[in-house]
Amino acid sequence: MAQFQNATVVKEANVYFNGNVTSRTVLLEDGSKVTLGIMLPGTYEFGTDTKEVMEILSGDLKVLLPDAKDWTHIQGQGTFSVPAQRTFKLEVRSVTDYCCSYQ
Amino acid sequence: MAQFQNATVVKEANVYFNGNVTSRTVLLEDGSKVTLGIMLPGTYEFGTDTKEVMEILSGDLKVLLPDAKDWTHIQGQGTFSVPAQRTFKLEVRSVTDYCCSYQ
């Protein structure tokens, strides 16, 4: 069971899209930040501030990355990255559990 | 901004009711456990193992505690407790952010 040790967890949730996307912020020992989140089925567009690495822990979703013409399909587990200051689209098909890292 | 320091966070989410209720498990420095969760609108019945103290961080929900005849309404913030080995019902009216402690 993967765990983050010696972490600081922000109690209050981050809530987007009427709660269809929610996450908790976790500050790691090395000073970096991740958010652990859940996305319910739906279509979403997100914008990045810094570069983001999205690790899909479980789920079923299609991703349209910036500049991509074709959607990427992740079923189960997977990882994708989005550069800073860009937007990307998601089509979430089943409940998706993720860990997003900010770089 | 309330935070848990020196915590261990389980990466994988706990998912209930098709993702309408989800939480993350956080193991605290003193050895106790909390779950930080989100409930979307709906009606739910839960059973307790140990005694649970539910702190509502934000939301709008009605609670029917064990042995209670009347529902309790929490709008915004609040706290309620449920003894071990009992069931309770929730009618969640808007996205509800909670912290559940186990005793």
From TrEMBL, chains A, B:
SUPFAM superfamilies documented for this protein: RmlC-like cupins (SSF51182)
Pfam families: Ppnp (PF06865)
Reactions catalysed according to its record: a purine D-ribonucleoside + phosphate = a purine nucleobase + alpha-D-ribose 1-phosphate; thymidine + phosphate = 2-deoxy-alpha-D-ribose 1-phosphate + thymine; inosine + phosphate = alpha-D-ribose 1-phosphate + hypoxanthine; cytidine + phosphate = cytosine + alpha-D-ribose 1-phosphate
InterPro entries xrefs: Ppnp, RmlC-like_jellyroll, RmlC_Cupin_sf
Enzyme Commission number(s) from the entry: 2.4.2.1, 2.4.2.2
The UniProt record lists the keyword Transferase: yes
Enzyme class, first EC level, given as a word: transferase
Domain of life: Bacteria
Keyword Hydrolase listed: no
Key words, A-Z: Glycosyltransferase, Transferase
PANTHER family: PYRIMIDINE/PURINE NUCLEOSIDE PHOSPHORYLASE, PYRIMIDINE_PURINE NUCLEOSIDE PHOSPHORYLASE
HAMAP family: Nucleos_phosphorylase_PpnP
Similarity field: Belongs to the nucleoside phosphorylase PpnP family.
Function description: Catalyzes the phosphorolysis of diverse nucleosides, yielding D-ribose 1-phosphate and the respective free bases. Can use uridine, adenosine, guanosine, cytidine, thymidine, inosine and xanthosine as substrates. Also catalyzes the reverse reactions.
Name of the protein in its database record: Pyrimidine/purine nucleoside phosphorylase
Gene name tied to this protein: ppnP
